[in-house]
Input
Amino acid sequence: MVYYIDRLCSLYPAFTITTLTVHRFLITAATVAAKGLSDSFWNNATYARVGGIKVAELGLLELDFLYRVDWKIVPNPEVLVDYYRGLVERSEGYVLETETTTTDEDDDLDEDSPEPVEDAEVKAENATDRQWDAWMQDVSTGRNKSKLVEGAVKKEE
Output
């Protein structure tokens, strides 16, 4: 939902959430996210009842929401990684792990031979793909409850 708030704020600088509108925004965002990201979701009557609004109002809010975000409800993996890093950095109990793994290929390189040149964009994309795959595997299997996502570890006290 933070992604939706950020997206709407960047597209519409006058966008604000108040105590009178927060429940409408949250139930609309939850409805859109559930429908867009899951194969199993409830009908609008259920979401409207939970949100304390009428079904017709939820339908209008949902349609307006989708138009305002240009029907783009799924963030890119890079955006999710940025949100994840920001979350971990702001959490006192967790730190990001540094990538210190080496491969057999790295051990076979001669010290005098030049380093293979790899495009920075490709490198970043590969790192993002690995993080995304690890996160999806953790989420889908429910593994590593002590870690939020691969790469974050609980600080030792």
Summary: Residues 77-154 form one domain. The helical segments are 2-11, 22-37, 44-51, 55-68, 77-90, 104-108, 120-141. The first strand starts at residue 94 and ends at 96. The chain has seven helices and two strands.
